[in-house]
User: Which sequence fits this backbone?
């Protein structure tokens, strides 16, 4: 059974009188350990799909199984738990809490997982070391560069040891060299066995991932196995 | 554990916006301070009033006064001998629900003299039980005895103010054994009463804080402030001016002749008052009826007497205490509610400011109830801090009130008042966080992340 399986998934928004189908009959399956890139023009529904995959939103219709759980029928609390334990999400705009330092930002998912302080600290420090920021533990996000902030966000996504990491244009706000190092980090994580799905605009990046999923007008037009 | 974390978050959030939090808290601080001050003021007043009422003899004391007989009895009212010592005797012998009884015959504006000192006061002729009924306390010497009464001895019991005025400069207790004149007739002081004062005045005096006042120094009623000489004219001062002699002596010495327009109309052995004390307040009405039955006999069915009880005045006193409490509490409560609205307002502003943060928290796994709880904890922390500071501020407020009003009653800060005011602040904190918390917890994660 695939790790992620979408069957006839649609997401429709109602804007005034009009109904917009951001996703329209999407079928997709991703196996554990895959490294996939979603590409496509702006407005094709990439972010909408990522939000569904990341359990931040639910489909209007269709079925979505994630690691054996039917996310399309899950309650709000169940979705929160999926996000907390099974999924790590990396955003284009980092989404760190500006008032918290690096350590506190990385600890946050473990607080909602209910871990004790000592374990939280130990695991957070390990995750921060993993992304190479051990010397910036006490800094706040505003004292870091864009690349460093994205590393903190990745550490935060990793810290509860999820099976899947989703990243929506993680290099979109970074210069190309910094973007490269972030992608290298994702590559390493994939080699270590984590399933990674990322959205990118960059053809070069997409060319290097083992699988490319191409979207247009809310549909997957290529890359579906 | 999450609770602990939420608490830290709340404190952090408050610490991050010190000025704003302080302004928000101010509403709660003032609310709690005024609520506790109101409790303390009304409690002080209630205690003061109840204390005076007890000095007066409490609810168990009943007076029987003379009155004009009803219209239909006027034609044959003469058959009643009026109120006499016989009334007291029959009550003493037959009324099982009465513990103490004393007749009272007064000599108003009597001249009390010792050496060059003269002083005017009311002298009461009475029975030994009078001391108990009026809740008098003998500080030195003894009371009036049955033998004093039987032999109509020239002995008297006096209050401290009387002693101070007749023996100025001496300790009042030293008056025992000395003699003095009442309307020219010699009497021996056999006992001096204790000094009566409000417990609040007593503590003030013991702390050496007595306000200088001419009236108080010589023990005369006259108030603490010269601008209001009647302010000090209370039950305590009245009792300090007591002079009591056996009622028999009163009759023989002062009531044997009743000179009206140079004609002696004969002795006047009528009582001014009959006072008794009921053994069991729960059988109050029963005791009244019992004595009424007895007096109907001695008065031969003529209703020329009436009862005066403290029931009504105590009831109306308790009633006014209650209304004052309710009014003050209501005003202070409104203050607190306004403070709560302030908290709700600030919390709404605060979550609007943090919509994105809430989105991030939801995205990494916070449940809706975690967000709800975080906001509630934050507003509760404001409530608790405001409550604690408010309790402290209450003492300051009471100090200011005391300076401004010079109230008769010392405010009493009771534990119940503290708990209620503080509890109210906490409840207001929780309630005012409710709507903002609900709003925050219902935010859609995606919408929240896209915000701002
Ligand atoms: N909340 C929303 N309400 C209405 N329309 C939306 C909403 N979110 C996305 N859309 C629409 O859905 C389509 C897909 O958007 P999106 O997934 O963000 O595209 P991409 O990320 O590929 O650029 C767009 O046409 C967008 O306008
Ligand atoms: Mg997008």
Assistant:
């Amino acid at each position: 059974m695939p790790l992620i399986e979408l069957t006839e998934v649609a997401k429709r928004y109602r804007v005034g009188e009009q109904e917009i189908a951001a996703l329209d009959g999407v079928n997709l399956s991703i196996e554990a350990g895959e490294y996939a890139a979603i590409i496509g023009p702006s407005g094709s529904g990439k972010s909408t799909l990522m939000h569904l995959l990341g359990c931040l939103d639910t489909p209007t219709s269709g079925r979505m199984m994630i690691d054996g759980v039917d996310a399309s029928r899950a309650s709000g609390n169940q979705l929160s738990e999926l996000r907390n334990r099974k999924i790590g999400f990396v955003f284009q705009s980092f989404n760190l809490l500006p008032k918290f330092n690096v350590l506190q930002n990385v600890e946050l998912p473990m607080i909602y997982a209910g871990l004790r302080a000592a374990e939280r600290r130990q695991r957070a420090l390990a995750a921060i070391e993993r992304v190479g920021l051990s010397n910036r533990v006490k800094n706040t996000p505003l004292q870091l560069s864009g690349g460093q902030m994205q590393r903190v966000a990745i550490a935060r996504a990793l810290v509860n040891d999820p099976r899947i990491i989703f990243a929506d244009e993680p290099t979109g706000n970074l210069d190309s060299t910094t973007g490269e190092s972030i992608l290298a980090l994702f590559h390493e994580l994939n080699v270590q066995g984590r399933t990674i799905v990322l959205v990118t605009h960059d053809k070069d990046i997409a060319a290097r991932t083992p699988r490319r999923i191409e979207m247009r007008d809310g549909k997957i037009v290529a890359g579906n196995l | 554990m999450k609770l602990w974390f939420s608490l830290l978050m709340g404190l952090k959030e408050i610490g991050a916006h010190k000025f704003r939090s302080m302004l928000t808290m101010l509403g709660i601080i003032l609310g709690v301070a005024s609520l506790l001050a109101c409790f303390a003021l009304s409690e002080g007043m209630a205690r003061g009033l109840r204390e005076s009422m007890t000095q007066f003899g409490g609810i168990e004391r009943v007076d029987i006064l003379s009155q004009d007989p009803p219209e239909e009895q006027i034609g044959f009212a003469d058959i009643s001998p009026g109120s006499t010592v016989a009334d007291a005797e029959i009550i003493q012998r037959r009324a099982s629900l009465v513990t103490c009884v004393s007749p009272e015959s007064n000599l108003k504006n009597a001249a009390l003299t010792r050496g060059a000192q003269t002083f005017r006061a009311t002298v009461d002729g009475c029975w030994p039980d009078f001391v108990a009924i009026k809740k008098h306390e003998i500080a030195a010497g003894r009371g009036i005895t049955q033998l004093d009464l039987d032999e109509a001895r020239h002995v008297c019991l006096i209050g401290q103010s009387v002693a101070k005025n007749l023996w100025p400069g001496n300790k009042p207790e030293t008056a025992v054994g000395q003699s003095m004149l009442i309307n020219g007739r010699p009497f021996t002081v056999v006992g001096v009463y204790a000094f009566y004062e409000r417990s609040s005045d007593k503590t003030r005096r013991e702390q050496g804080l007595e306000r200088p006042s001419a009236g108080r120094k010589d023990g005369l009623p006259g108030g603490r402030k010269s601008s209001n000489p009647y302010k000090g004219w209370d039950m305590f001062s009245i009792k300090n001016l007591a002079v009591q002699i056996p009622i028999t002596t009163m009759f023989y010495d002062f009531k044997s002749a009743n000179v009206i327009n140079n004609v002696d109309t004969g002795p006047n052995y009528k009582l001014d008052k009959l006072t008794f004390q009921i053994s069991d307040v729960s059988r109050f009405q029963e005791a009244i009826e019992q004595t009424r039955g007895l007096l109907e006999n001695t008065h031969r069915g003529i209703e020329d007497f009436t009862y005066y009880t403290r029931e009504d005045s105590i009831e109306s006193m308790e009633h006014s205490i209650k209304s004052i409490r309710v009014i003050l509490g209501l005003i202070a409560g409104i203050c607190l509610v306004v403070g709560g609205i302030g908290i709700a307002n600030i919390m709404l502003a605060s979550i609007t400011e943090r919509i994105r943060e809430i989105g991030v928290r939801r995205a990494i796994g916070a449940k809706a109830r975690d967000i709800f709880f975080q906001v509630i904890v934050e507003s509760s922390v404001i409530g608790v801090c405001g409550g604690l500071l408010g309790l402290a501020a209450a003492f300051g407020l009471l100090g200011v009130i005391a300076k401004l009003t010079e109230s008769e009653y010392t405010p009493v800060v009771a534990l119940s008042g503290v708990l209620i005011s503080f509890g109210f602040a906490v409840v207001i904190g929780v309630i005012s966080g409710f709507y903002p918390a609900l709003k925050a917890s219902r935010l859609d994660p995606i919408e929240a992340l896209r915000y701002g």
